[in-house]
TrEMBL record:
<protein>
    <submittedName>
        <fullName>ABC transporter</fullName>
    </submittedName>
</protein>
<dbReference type="Pfam" id="PF00005">
    <property type="entry name" value="ABC_tran"/>
</dbReference>
<dbReference type="GO" id="GO:0005886">
    <property type="term" value="C:plasma membrane"/>
</dbReference>
<dbReference type="InterPro" id="IPR015854">
    <property type="entry name" value="ABC_transpr_LolD-like"/>
</dbReference>
<dbReference type="InterPro" id="IPR027417">
    <property type="entry name" value="P-loop_NTPase"/>
</dbReference>
<keyword id="KW-0067">ATP-binding</keyword>
<dbReference type="InterPro" id="IPR017871">
    <property type="entry name" value="ABC_transporter-like_CS"/>
</dbReference>
<comment type="similarity">
    <text>Belongs to the ABC transporter superfamily.</text>
</comment>
<dbReference type="GO" id="GO:0016887">
    <property type="term" value="F:ATP hydrolysis activity"/>
</dbReference>
<dbReference type="GO" id="GO:0022857">
    <property type="term" value="F:transmembrane transporter activity"/>
</dbReference>
<keyword id="KW-0547">Nucleotide-binding</keyword>
<feature type="domain" description="ABC transporter">
    <location>
        <begin position="2"/>
        <end position="203"/>
    </location>
</feature>
<dbReference type="GO" id="GO:0005524">
    <property type="term" value="F:ATP binding"/>
</dbReference>
<dbReference type="InterPro" id="IPR003593">
    <property type="entry name" value="AAA+_ATPase"/>
</dbReference>
<dbReference type="InterPro" id="IPR003439">
    <property type="entry name" value="ABC_transporter-like_ATP-bd"/>
</dbReference>
């Protein structure tokens, strides 16, 4: 479980983003964070993912405070427990598609051959029909987003955070991606999705407007 307790964040004293925001996200559920642009949805996702430290309040992982830990300790938690799908895919343009999918798992010490096999399975599942040795600059925006999803799902993370994961996708692929996220949640993971799509929000187990 991941929990935000009286969470607040300010980019500057004159730019408060969140103030005393609390919510708990249970294992086995997919939650949509919704609301107009500028409400701090992406910032909240970065806070929950331990990539930003809150101005006040805390993020707890399985009941243990985590957001105030040193950078190295938070990085270890992210590596062990989290998967991320960023809004802009955040692929490394200097590395191949297959390397982008497997790099996080290999960094954690997972078996290289097993990672490559599962990566190819995921790429096929999400119809990323490009040569694995192609670079991200040689794929479309929709393909890049699906590659990022493959990377996030590769190690079956206990917590998966996704920022507009269907923003560049056609309706059919959107249904496939949302179905995969729901399946991952219902296998026992915690999935949190930032979305502007009513259809994506409706597919979640609950919706939290910001």
């Amino acid at each position: 479980m991941i929990e935000a307790r009286e969470l607040g964040f300010d980019w500057s004293p004159r730019m408060p983003v969140l103030d005393n925001w609390s919510a708990a996200f249970e294992s086995g559920t997919m939650t949509a964070l919704t609301g107009p642009s500028g409400r701090g949805k992406s910032t909240l996702l970065y806070l929950l993912g331990l990539m930003l430290r809150p101005t006040h309040g805390q993020v707890l992982i399985d009941g243990e405070p985590a957001s105030a830990l040193p950078d190295a300790a938070r990085a270890r938690i992210r590596s062990a427990r989290f998967g991320f799908v960023f809004q802009d895919a955040a692929l490394d343009s200097t590395r191949t598609v297959i390397d982008n999918v497997t790099e996080v798992a290999l960094y954690r010490g997972d078996d290289r051959q097993a990672c490559a096999h599962r990566a190819r399975e995921l790429l096929e599942r999400f119809s990323v029909d490009v040569p694995p040795l192609r670079k991200p600059t040689q794929v479309s925006g929709g393909q890049a987003q699906r590659i990022a999803l493959c990377r996030a799902l590769l190690s079956r993370p206990l917590i998966l955070l996704a920022d507009e994961p269907t923003g560049n996708l056609d309706p059919a692929t959107t249904r496939t991606v949302v179905g995969a996220l729901a399946e991952h949640a219902h296998s026992g993971a915690t999935v949190i999705v930032v979305t502007h799509s009513p259809a994506v929000a409706a597919a979640c187990d609950r919706e939290i407007p910001l």
